[in-house]
Amino acid sequence: MNIMLLPLIIIIFGSLTMVLIIAYKRSLAVCHWLTGIILVSALAAQCILFNPESVSADLLLFSPLNQFLCQLTLLIVLIVYWPLKQWLSQHSSSPTPFYLLLLWTTIGALVMILANHFALLFMGLELLSLSLIGLIAYQCPQFRNQPADNGSEISSEAIGIEAAVKYLILSAIASAVILLGFALIYIDIGSLSLTDLHQVAQGKLLPPWLIYGAIFFILGGLFFKLSIAPCHLWFADLLQGAPTPVAALLSTISKLAVFSLLFKLLLSSQWIQITIVAQVIGAVAIISMLLGNLLALRQQNIYRLLAYSSIAHFGYLLIIMLLGNNSHIASEEILLIYMVAYLLSLSGLFALLSLMPDQDTLEKLQGLLWRQPLLGICFMLLILSLAGIPLTIGFVAKFYLLLATVEQQLWLLIGALVLGSIIGLFYYFNLLLTIAKKTASKNTTAIKRIPIVGSVVITLFIVLLGLYPQPLAQFISQLVEQ
Amino acid sequence: MMLATIILLPLIGAVLAWLSSKINANYPRVVTLVILLLCFLPLITIMQQQAGSENIGSDWYSHFETDWLSRFNLNIHLAIDGFSAMLIALTLVIAIIALCASWSEIVDKCGLFYLNLLLTIAGIIGVFISLNLLLFFVFWEVMLVPMFFLINIWGHEHRHYAALKFLIFTQLGGLLMLLSICALGVIHFEQTGSWSFDYLQLQQISLSATQQNWLALGFMLALLVKLPALPFHSWLPDAHTQAPTGASIILAAILLKTSAYGIIRFVLVLFPDFSIQFAPLINTIAVVGIIYGAILAFAQSDIKRLIAYSSISHMGFVLLGCFSLNVLALQGAIVQMVAHAFTSAGLFYVAGIIQARYGTRDLNKLGGLATQMPKLAGLAMILIIATLGMPGLGNFVGELLVLLGSFEHFTLFSVIAATGLIFSACYCLSIIHRAFWGAAKEHERQISDINAREKLSLMVLIVALFVLGLQPQYLLKFTDNLSVKIIAISSIGQNK
Fold this sequence. Notes:
The structure holds two protein chains of two kinds. Chain A has 21 helices and four strands. By secondary structure, chain A is an all-alpha fold. Chain A has one domain. In chain A, the strands form two sheets. Chain A has a two-stranded antiparallel sheet with strand order 1-2. In chain A, strands 3-4 form a two-stranded antiparallel ribbon. Chain B is mainly α. Classes of the chains: A mainly alpha, B mainly alpha. Chains A and B meet through helix 18, helix 19 and helix 21 of A and strand 1, helix 5, helix 6 and helix 7 of B.
């Protein structure tokens, strides 16, 4: 057995142990600490075992890229996990299974990132989706009641279940479509290994239209899972309905795992060489950038706003698929730096939001800077990073992307990128404007110190890397060269 | 290392000012004052080391280089020449004036105010001394965000709208400039095989005319928005009017100058063909701005709005001076930059004083101030007359040099721009007439004349204007060689 599997094994055995412990005694504290130990040791194992060479282990492939993405996933889960205890003790009467589902989601994401074979990949995808459905429908906080159109309040539980059903149906359909696509490809090339997928373009057995059909089935399914335009309609409802930590998982590690698959299919398997695929990806990227930003413009709910901004950000990220082989900045490099910048900022923001679950609309966020200065400043810096303002890591990522796009002279995409960023600035700064407004209300909910420390550390990290990106950039460029 | 301290001092000072507000609400302004005074030390040291050498004002000195992002060969490259040194000194002086203006005006969240003020100053100084284009861009953005907060938190009635408008306008320009900077880096990579965003190295690459036009377009849009030139000026009256006095002073007196600096330092040098080809177009924008700003200023009844529109008019002269491609005009533009910094700072200060005393900026509600506040009226009169372009005061020298210089290649523009002086006389005299003279209106408040701090600040500005007007050579010797060098680059292009 390969030693590289250790992080996965730690999480799997850890979660099984937790099942046994929960069966014996349901204790929030025990589960919390156990999850913490599992996640930290998995992350430590992943870092210690880091191997600059590609290691293949049957169905899994431990390339440097995959390993780095695994580290990032574990780090994000840790950020989401950090304020979880306080959140769960406030909002849930039976908090323990939440940790189990969290760990299983993590396993799903890791397997998806590492998988080199379709069977395993699909298992990871389903594990991720099914655990997330459980998490979305998890007893929702009573705070986030939404007034319905006729004035009566819909119970939060109903919203949670509505969101879960939406996700269940859409994700099942998307999975089925992906499965169909792979089945068709299997007929053609007779292999389910991702390394053989580049043969698809040659079309041995099936007519080309069927091969293209298969490719678009797979891409369509992935677009749904990534919620990029035009398959984005469900995402805002979901983030609004899901509990805050789950919203964080949905918009970070779930998307990271799916995007890494898309990246492998398009670039490693060279599907992007097919003209029509490239055209579709370009169109989808432009629509996502513009539509995501435009829809975010008038949102009053911060979760909906972040949902649409996430659509736009993944639109930006799709640009790297179209860079071509002769680019002097490798796509992997931009992928990694952008993922680190965007996902860390976003998960930091979600961790912060889960500290104040009653403040979900712009109106309720008013004056945050004065009510809770420390949280307000962290919030501000994280938003600046999302907006890509210099001296945050967000700017470094934007610079990489812009430089590569300019180098390849993709003017249409640059136009959309610039336009999208400007529209984006409008709502990000509107958010900053809101939190800096002076308000009369002084209702401050006491927040424990430990969860805040997590957010402060993330914010510091983001600003320090923005001030001096050298270590991260150096590490990533070495990683990619190998 | 000396140069790095000029930027680091305000940065550290910003944090100190903020922290000190926890101890005592009065400390932040004292900390800010001390920090700003301390900033003069490294500047004076550097200048003294250079004082002996002949070529002051032409060479870069006191280089500071360190790695920042070696993947793209990005280094933190700071250096100073006569032009930058002069602008940094100006920045520090104006910052102290702005501090004086905010001294008693800002009482709410004092620490945070001075944090943002010092961050803006750090950004502006950074813009003036970075020799790496990406670093220049970073500082360019860094000064905008704190300014956004200054307007947004401490501004007047429509501050949120004004702050957002200011930010969106300037950021749109900024993004286009970032694109151009990226493209310059890429072209350098294609020509030499290594990445570079260094100003000195980017001067070595050869650009085709088309490339120059597109790249310069990105730069020019960012700079014209900030200058501001027609038709991108509409953020300025709002931002100026709504900002607190201190921020208005910084905004008008030095933030606008960063864009003139950008034109002189980057556009004229890196894109000489563009400058020659598009000079008529840009000069048209400049001249229209001069006339349009002056006419609109005349129509305003809000004092701050009036001064804001007069800024558009005066910055038009700077733009005309930059693109007249003539040493005289370029020197004029530089003098005009400095003179406008002093007059606009002074006028906004006066507007702030009037608003604090009377609670209004509306000229229709004011009148007869001269009887109630004779000292303010006297000092304000000199500032207004300087704005109008009276010989013997700074603005006259700037405007005269610009008009003289532009007459050589752009006669018609020069003639039309000269009529702007008549318009400026109209609005200047109208302020004096409507605000200071006439019958004093009844006011409920007890009005006291200006105090020693206010008097001193205004006196400093007035003395500076007189020195500039009577002996501009003090200033011109710093930029003499630079102007000659820049015009030489542009005219080489002209011969092609």
